[in-house]
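Side project, low priority. Logging it here so it doesn't get lost.
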Amino acid sequence: MFHMINVLLFYSFVFFTTDQNMKETEVGSPVPRFALPDQNGNLFSIDSVVGKKNLVIYFYPMDDSPGCTKEACYFRDELEVFSEADALIIGISGQSVESHKKFAEKYQLGFTLLSDKGDKVRQLFGVPVNFFGLLQGRVTYVIDKSGTVVYIYNSQTQAKRHVDEALRILKGLK
């Protein structure tokens, strides 16, 4: 009986976390093209920065949750190091522009947060949903100046490690 429950849970997890129409962005892929509103309500287009800067695009589940706050504040604390690596940090989640603005102001985040209502860009990148479809995935993409994805880090629980991994890869791009 216990084994049968585990099998059912496994297949439920696979069914609810896999979208057959979702194309996953991989290392070597060009960064998907998109435009979303930032925390100030201004439209941000990825095309405005590709070719000019290295990019760190990180998808996170939710503003003001413990793990997401830890991750965002660590990106904030290392902002100067990212700047030295000629990199922009872009955080993306499904919350509203207003939620992002409050989150950015509360923690003095000096980087762009984009509102992906409907999770269209999340799907465009192929970011997985975890825990039976209840929790958005946490994935970081490092993109070089040519617009090519050079590294992907996926970990729901190691929020701060996303920053460390991005910095490690960026140091190798110089």
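Brief comment: The chain has six helices and nine strands.
Revisit when time allows.
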